[in-house]
Amino acid sequence: MSEQDRRQLILEGALKVFSEQGYHKASIKEIAKAAGIKSPALIYHYFADKKAVLAAILTEMTPFSDIPIFQDDVPSDLLDRLPDILLPMAITRIFAFLDNPRILATIRVFISEAARMDEVGDAVAEFQQHGLRFLSRYIQHHIDSGYFRPHDTATSSRAFIGMMLAYVLGQAVFPGMRDGFPQRDAYIDDSVRIFVKGLRNDA
User: Fold this and answer.
1) CA dihedral angle for residue 161, residue 106, residue 47, residue 45, rounded to 10 degrees
2) Alpha carbon distances (Å) from 152 to 158, 159, 192
3) How far apart are CA 173 and CA 122, in angstroms?
4) At what angle do helices 3-21 and 50-60 cross, to 10 degrees?
5) DSSP-assigned states of every residue in 157-188
6) pTM score above 0.70
7) Domains, the chain, ranges and CATH?
8) What span, in angstroms and rounded, lies between the C-alpha atoms of 87 and 130?
9) Three-class SS of residue 148?
10) Which of 17, 78, 165, 180 could form a disulfide with 26 if both were Cys (CB 3.0 to 4.6 A apart)?
11) What is the CB neighbour count within 10 angstroms for residue 51?
12) Residue 10 belongs to what H/E stretch?
């Protein structure tokens, strides 16, 4: 087994343990067992500690794992993609993860523990900041190209993520919020249309 394969097994094992027991109660020993690794000490060959495992899950096992939002040099062809194309693609990937019961359970755990555990809160906040920086840069790129009108990208980035969070929270945490939500594809189409139309230079 390659080191990359073993590392992936550790992340999958950790996701299983986190979703079932929560981050606080999870131990390296239990993560190793779930990953099928005999020696828990082997995990430290790949990750410094449990927090590093959590950070890797957030950055590598997400809908954006194949979009380089964590790199300083974002490929120009990615920035050039029109919002009407890139944004629906990104949202579709996010929402598809809600169909995975383990991911859904982990989202609930992170939300419940983020407020009372600095390790979880910091990891989630760092991941969110990466996403906000990428989205802000992407929107600014399209302001510079003339596609979007000039505005504060910090505000528009948060507004867009807010629309997505409303759906995620309704599906994962607050069942009562599901009432009145349109079908997933319709929600994606309408959200992107509202967002893009509001920022278009010809709006």
Assistant:
1) -140
2) 10, 11, 18
3) 20
4) 100
5) HHHHHHHHHHHHHHHHT-GGGGTT---HHHHH
6) yes
7) 1-52 (1.10.10.60), 62-199 (1.10.357.10)
8) 16
9) strand
10) 17
11) 15
12) helix 3-21
Stated length of the chain: 203
CA dist 42 and 51 (Å) reads 16
User: What's the CA gap between 167 and 200, in Å, rounded?
Assistant: 24
What are 57's two structure tokens? 């899950």
Say if residue 3's pLDDT is above 90.
no
**DSSP code, position 149:** P
Could you tell me which residues come within 8 angstroms of residue 158 by beta carbon, excluding any fewer than 6 positions away? 132
| Per-residue pLDDT at 4 exceeds 80 | yes
Please answer whether residues 157 and 99 qualify as being in contact, where contact means their C-beta atoms are separated by less than 8 angstroms. Answer: no
At residue 189 the predicted structure's pLDDT band, cuts being 50, 70 and 90, is: very high
Q: At what angle do helices 83-96 and 118-144 cross, to 10 degrees?
A: 160
pLDDT in tens, 105-145: 777 777 767 666 677 667 667 767 878 888 999 999 999 99
Tell me the backbone φ, ψ of residue 200, rounded to 5 degrees: -60, 145
